[in-house]
Request: fold
Amino acid sequence: MDVSASSPNEGEAPLLKAVAWLCRPLVRLLIEKGIGYPRLRDLLKRLYVEVADESFRLGGKPPTDSRIHILTGVHRKDIRRLRGTPAEEADAAARTSTLGAAIVSRWLGLPDYRDADGRPRCLPRSSDDGSPAFDTLVADVSKDVRPRAILDELQRQGVVSIDDSGTICLQQAAFVPAAGFGEQVFFLGRNVHDHLAACTHNLLSPDTPMLERSVYFAHLSGDSVQRLRALAEDRAKALLADLNEEGLALQKADAGRPDAVHRIRFGCYWYQARRADDKDRSQ
Reply:
């Protein structure tokens, strides 16, 4: 889709209103963490240039600085500067979070790492007879990092515990760091990005929609909210566990296939608030 050649967008006003609404929690978070408007402005400027460069190519060729200027409104000198400056690489928190999530996913989803009741087994650090062990679990995900370093990080985050005999037990049914703001915001970015990307796809390609559904209720008592929340958490936990197990099996079956180039993310979320504190009066 080349927006430079399209007619004025009749949906501009409602789109901007929706963007303003979805950005409110993000702006609150930025203010709480001392990140002011100038830094967000600079970040958005770079994003406009990067997205125009990646998504609005003609014949596979990168757009010129002039075309990016037309598409985005960013000044040409800023475009030249930003295109000549590489974006920051993923930090250590991002790498650790990705690796830790993959390890916990396999621990929860692979039969070798679950007991007869389907719960994740407590594992020895290593094994000489090929039986399930923590070091083997880490090596299945990555051989570029020492299992001891991953174990220390997962223990710091409260995801695993180690008893007096050195046995390692998973403490949480999902990879949700108990500590470490960097890990938490890493998943914030990845999860919300993919949710928003699905919504964007559905707006731009309505003939091939992706799953994006929610339910909404208002005028509920506190007891009713807690009852619905417990139901949602119970059903979501079971569904995510099923998808994790099936995904691991399919990923193994697809290994080596030339068309195994796709990724997916499926998530669930819950939000509650008092309507008196809600700025949105349209619902």
The beta strands are 160-162, 168-170. The first strand starts at residue 160 and ends at 162.
